[in-house]
Each structure stands twice: as structure tokens, then as C-alpha cells.
Design a protein that fits this description.
heterodimer; A: 204 residues; Rossmann fold; eight-stranded mixed sheet; 8 strands; B: 338 residues; Methane Monooxygenase Hydroxylase, Chain G, domain 1; Thrombin, subunit H; six-stranded antiparallel barrel; 6 strands
């Protein structure tokens, strides 16, 4: 749950990038870090391990400036995607305000996407949250590999697999090239701030 | 698609998956490409192609090994520990006490036990946090397999004037329950009794003859698994011969449904010249014809630094009857060097 400092008119919220291992969550944050310098307010911190796999989390602080009289600060996180880091994922998800689910478009990762979405659903449930109600955006990453002849899932199939019930906004993307990264983060910020406005009766 | 194109496409995919860190997927593509090449043995340079793929697979196995053996909770820098503490203690509309405790707990949850222990030690000074801090100190020590330190720590608190009898009772109950959960024998533990009247001088120090030594250490290794008994000696120096670590083996079968084909298996366990393979139950037909004593004359041993050819003898074949691998087969092979 976001913090709202009434005295300083300051709001701080938490967005978590979730998804299977090696789907491109860290690459999303790296792109944001290098591209949105104006909004980034500190260093990106990554705790990774052998093979550049995120071990604990990545963290990137951002400031969106004043929105309706409030100073809006955002913390972007990623979770470790590997199945065995379940407890760390749950820990990072604590007090989350909005989620970007990064799905891997590679055909060979179809099952991993579905498992990770199920894992997200269960972890949110343990905090009394629902994947159906929380601000959520899907990103279908690695679309650029289609041009290299690597088998990808069609968008329609990914929608069917992951978004049939959620009906969340979904963006094709290539985090490596930056395509779709901005659209994804913009959409999740918009949705998260709207949701916080409703919850906190802020700016009404 | 022409089979040449299929092979090219599989190898391209494998390369890309490897670059992306999708090592299992890369390995699978290499396996499929190898199968396809073997089915079309008339391809020029097929043997060289297979040898190149084998090299790639060895590289993949090495990378997988490094990942699998890397610690899951490494100690990170002080700066990162500070960040963990700050980010994962809410400090939101809660007291400083709560935030400090949450920060220390977060450090422990991320496996930063040494730093967490320092933080909890400091929190012992704060009356409202004392019991929670003490319990978390014990929890960290048990996570670190420092059972003696946990028991000694509790013993020291029984003489610490900061602890009331009621607080000590709670801590003792916690320690006992944690020990019980982990299957330690409490009879042998004889934890120091908390002093009876609250705040009075302790009834005595830590007993010198406290039989804590009787408790098996948390890290006590499992008994060594039974392995092949008829190890071939072959030592050139009269002592124990050193064997390379073998990640996987390729066995060329001369009988059975895979006759004439080399099938690759991951090595699940190795001690010296004895290796153990776990064969999924669904693949039992591949090893049906093997039994203790069967000789395997053509085996490729894939180690992180070399591929070796050799032979081996099956020393045991058993069906796993319980646990997560129930229904699979355990195959012990004694390596005989060529």
C-alpha cells in the first residue's frame, strides 16, 4: 500500500515487474534507467548472481513531479524469476500498488509464463490482494526475435493464455531495444495513480 | 522443411536460447539437432558437427553447474544491506521500534544473517522488542546451523539482568519448539532454566557440564550414500586415484530399444569412480536390459574440462520406492577407464 504523507503532500507507490526467469524484467528497468533520466531520482540497484540472474530484486526510484498538488514518488522493483526464489518474490511483492507482468514471447517459454502468472495470483492472494483487482499491465516481451526467425507465440495466443480473464492492457515489446517499455510503464503508472486516487481520496 | 534447414534452425535457436540464459531450452535444441544429424548420417562432416555440438553442450553443463552451485543467499555489500533494511521496513505510520525490527527481520529474510544478528543484538536493549529480538537471534543462529551458539546465547541471557523471568520463559519455549521442529533431542539439551523470581539474581551461570555437546549439529552431513563396492583400482600411484567431476554421460547401447544410439544422462551423484544416474520411470525400457554386472563398453564422460571415452560396469539398478523420484530408476555405474 502506498504511503501518503499528508503534511508534505507526498505520495510514494510501489510497482513490481513480475514474470518468469529471463523474460526481461531487469532489461525493462535498465532501459527506463537509461532513458528516463529526468524522472529517475537515484541509482538502479541490482542484486544478481551467477549468470546475471536476479537473486533478490532490482530497485529503481523515480519521481514524477507534482500531480494535482502532490509530489509523486515511484519505486520500481523486479522479482527474481527462477522458481526456487518463491519466498523472495513474495517478500518483494509486499505492499505492492501496481504490477507489470512481463511475459516471454518465446514459444518454448509458454508454460513458464502461465506458471509465473499462477504464482503471482497465489502470492497476491496471501496478502489479501487479487490479480483481478490490482492495477496490472501485461507486456509481451522479445517480439524483436520474430525477425530473426525464432519461434514466438502469436499475440492472440498469449492473450488467450494469459489475459482471457484479466483483460488487462497488454503491450508487445522489446525491452532490449526499448520498444513498448515506455508505453508499459506509462500505462501502469496511470492505472496505479488512478487506483490510489480512489483509495486515498487524493486530489478529489 | 528440408532436414538441413531444420538442423540449421535448431542450432540457431539453441545459440539464441543460450545467449538469453535459457540453458535447458538450448540443451534441448542441441539434443534435437544431434538426433536429426544422426538420422541423416550421410550429411557431410556429420561427425565434426556432432563433436561441435557436444562441446556446446559441455559448455552449457558447466554454466548450469555454476548456477546450481552458486549460493542462493550471498552476503551483499553494506550499502545494499542498508537498502534492504530501508526498503523492507515499512516505517509507515508505525513506530521507530517496529520499523527497526522489520528492517532487521528483512535482512534475515534475505539471508544477511551476520548483519541481522548485529541489528537484533542492538534491539535487545529495547524492552518492548527484547523477546522478539531474542527469538530472531535464535532463528538466525539456527539458520546458520550454529546450534551451540543459540544454546550458549540463551544460557547467557539467563544471567542477563535485562531479561525478566517471563521474557526468558517465552524465549526458552521458542527455542525448544524450534529444536523440536528440526528433530533435535531435547533430552540431551538441558536448557538452562530461567531464574524463578523476575529480576532477581540468576540461580547460576551456564553449567560447565551442560550436555549440549550431545546434540547433533544441524549441519551434520547425511551418511554417505551407498555406492558401487567393486571399484576398479587402476591407480597409477598406489593411492586413491583422482577422478574428474562428471556432469553427464553418453551411453552407446548395444542392446535394447536404443541399440546403436548414444543416449545422454545427467549424473546425479559421483564419488570417485562411481557415478549415479536417475532414469525417469517413463524411460525404463531404455535400461530394461541392464542389470548389476552389465558391462557398458562405450561411454562418453562429459566433465567440465574434457570429454573422455571409457567404459563402465553397472553395479546396481534399483527402482526408487518413495519420495519425489518415486518410480524412477537409480543406476550405479563404476567407471573403468579405457
Amino acid at each position: 500500500m502506498a504511503t501518503f504523507n499528508f503534511k508534505n503532500r507526498e505520495i510514494e507507490c510501489k510497482i513490481v515487474y513480475y514474470g518468469p526467469g529471463r523474460c526481461g524484467k531487469t532489461t525493462n528497468l535498465e532501459y527506463i534507467f537509461h532513458t528516463y533520466k529526468k524522472q529517475v531520482t537515484g541509482e538502479m540497484v541490482s542484486i544478481d548472481t551467477e549468470g546475471d540472474r536476479t537473486l533478490f530484486f532490482d530497485f529503481l526510484p523515480m519521481g514524477l513531479g507534482k500531480i494535482r498538488g502532490c509530489d509523486v514518488k515511484v519505486q520500481l522493483y523486479t522479482v527474481p524469476g527462477q522458481v526456487q526464489y518463491s519466498s523472495t518474490r513474495k517478500l518483494v511483492l509486499k505492499e505492492v500498488d501496481g504490477i507489470v507482468f512481463v511475459a516471454d514471447s518465446l514459444e518454448v517459454r509458454r508454460d513458464k509464463n502461465m506458471q509465473s502468472l499462477k504464482d503471482l495470483h497465489e502470492n497476491l492472494k496471501s496478502y489479501g490482494l487479487s490479480v483481478l483487482n490490482i492495477p496490472l499491465v501485461l507486456q509481451y516481451n522479445k517480439r524483436d526475435l520474430d525477425a530473426e526467425g525464432i519461434p514466438l507465440m502469436p499475440i492472440a495466443q498469449m492473450d488467450k493464455d494469459l489475459n482471457r480473464q484479466l483483460k488487462a492492457p497488454a503491450f508487445p515489446a522489446s525491452a532490449l531495444k526499448g520498444d513498448g517499455v515506455g508505453a508499459t510503464v506509462t500505462e501502469i503508472l496511470k492505472r496505479t495513480l488512478l487506483s490510489l486516487q480512489k483509495q486515498l481520496k487524493w486530489a478529489t | 522443411m528440408d532436414f538441413r534447414e531444420q538442423i540449421k534452425s535448431l542450432l540457431k535457436e539453441a545459440e539464441l536460447y543460450q545467449q538469453q540464459g535459457l540453458l535447458n531450452e538450448a540443451k534441448e535444441r542441441y539434443r534435437k539437432a544431434t538426433d536429426l544429424i544422426k538420422q541423416n548420417a550421410h550429411i557431410p562432416n556429420s561427425q565434426q558437427l556432432i563433436a561441435k555440438i557436444v562441446q556446446k553442450v559441455v559448455g552449457l553443463n558447466q554454466a548450469m553447474e555454476r548456477i546450481n552451485t552458486a549460493t542462493s543467499k550471498p552476503q551483499v555489500s553494506d550499502r545494499k544491506q542498508d537498502l534492504i533494511k530501508k526498503l523492507f521496513s515499512s516505517g509507515r505510520e508505525t513506530s521507530s521500534d517496529d520499523a527497526d525490527l522489520e528492517g532487521a527481520i528483512a535482512l534475515a529474510k534475505f539471508g544477511q544473517f551476520e548483519r541481522a544478528l548485529q541489528e537484533f543484538e542492538r534491539l535487545l536493549d529495547r524492552e518492548p522488542l527484547r523477546v522478539a529480538a531474542a527469538k530472531n537471534i535464535l532463528r538466525c543462529q539456527l539458520e546458520l546451523d550454529a546450534l551451540d551458539a543459540a544454546v550458549d546465547g540463551y544460557g547467557a541471557w539467563t544471567q542477563d539482568p535485562r531479561f525478566s523471568a517471563a521474557q526468558l520463559q517465552k524465549v526458552k519455549f521458542f527455542l525448544e519448539s524450534r529444536l523440536k521442529k528440526s528433530g533435535r533431542t531435547l533430552d540431551a539439551l538441558a536448557l538452562e532454566e530461567p531464574r524463578k523470581p523476575a529480576g532477581t539474581a540468576p540461580g547460576g551461570g551456564v553449567s560447565a557440564d551442560r550436555p549440549a555437546q550431545g546434540i547433533p549439529p544441524a549441519s551434520s552431513p547425511e551418511p554417505p550414500r551407498a555406492v558401487a563396492e567393486n571399484r576398479p583400482s587402476g591407480s597409477a600411484h598406489g593411492g586413491e586415484e583422482e577422478y574428474l567431476d562428471i556432469n553427464s554421460v553418453g551411453i552407446l547401447f548395444d542392446r535394447g530399444p536404443q541399440k546403436g544410439r548414444m543416449v545422454e544422462f545427467d549424473v546425479s551423484f559421483q564419488t570417485g569412480n562411481a557415478i549415479n544416474l536417475i532414469i525417469p520411470g517413463k524411460d525404463r525400457n531404455v535400461i530394461d536390459h541392464l542389470e548389476a554386472g552389465s558391462r557398458l563398453d562405450d561411454i562418453q564422460f562429459f566433465s567440465p574440462i574434457a570429454i573422455l571415452n571409457g567404459s563402465g560396469v553397472v553395479t546396481a539398478k534399483t527402482r526408487i520406492k518413495s519420495g519425489p523420484k518415486e518410480g524412477d530408476f537409480s543406476l550405479d555405474i563404476a567407471i573403468i577407464r579405457s
